[in-house]
Amino acid sequence: xxxxxxxxxxxxxxxxxxxxxxxxxxxxxxxxxxxxxxxxxxxxxxxxxxxxxxxxxxxxxxxxxxxxxxxxxxxxxxxxxxxxxxxxxxxxxxxxxxxxxxxxxxxxxxxxxxxxxxxxxxxxxxxxxxxxxxxxxxxxxxxxxxxxxxxxxxxxxxxxxxxxxxxxxxxxxxxxxxxxxxxxxxxxxxxxxxxxxxxxxxxxxxxxxxxxxxxxxxxxxxxxxxxxxxxxxxxxxxxxxxxxxxxxxxxxxxxxxxxxxxxxxxxxxxxxx
Length: 273
Fold this sequence. Notes:
Elements: H1 11-18, H2 23-29, H3 34-43, H4 53-58, E1 82-87, E2 93-96, H5 98-118, E3 121-138, E4 159-173, E5 181-189, H6 194-199, H7 201-204, E6 213-217, E7 222-229, H8 230-241, E8 247-252, E9 259-268
Helix pairs in contact: 2-3
């Protein structure tokens, strides 16, 4: 295979490859190391199977495939004072301060943030069963050099631990998905706890979060990976145990090529009118 052919892969092609066969096999086909392939996936923000994924799948276990979320672009750097071509008082060039540049960056980011929310559609799922999954192991996405962005939590620890609340049911809306099976996995995220958000608000000013989860079309159902604050997980689990979660409503992107971002969701005992 020609040298550096792996660098010509699109994010979608790379995603499909690493979820179709083990990383070592994919790397061998491109004549590179599996570590180099893993670094490429991390750079392109392509999720990869966790350790033990292929063994569990070979054993016939049901193992979820993480969705390919939208690429989180690196926030624009705040530039220092620059000179505008427009002239100020007394014919002197007008300088834009760092404060003005920062405000401009924030306004641009907010425009994209609000545009995405305004174009979202609603999804409704009737819940028919639930369970909890647990897994623990080494994190192949670990990268202490990964930049600080909305996906940093995927790379910050050499270990992974999942205690997912899994809700299964069928879509009631929109009409084109009616009666399709849905599996929603609520994944704990400590960085979304109220106290953590308040401490980290400055990180979001110039780069608002892109989503709180995503849809991914599987062979016979649609998978939704949803982040849930760690301090709210116990309440959701308790409500599921007492059969209090009968519907889940979501708001997000219209599915394109079997994928889409999710912006919000709510767990309900009664369906909204």
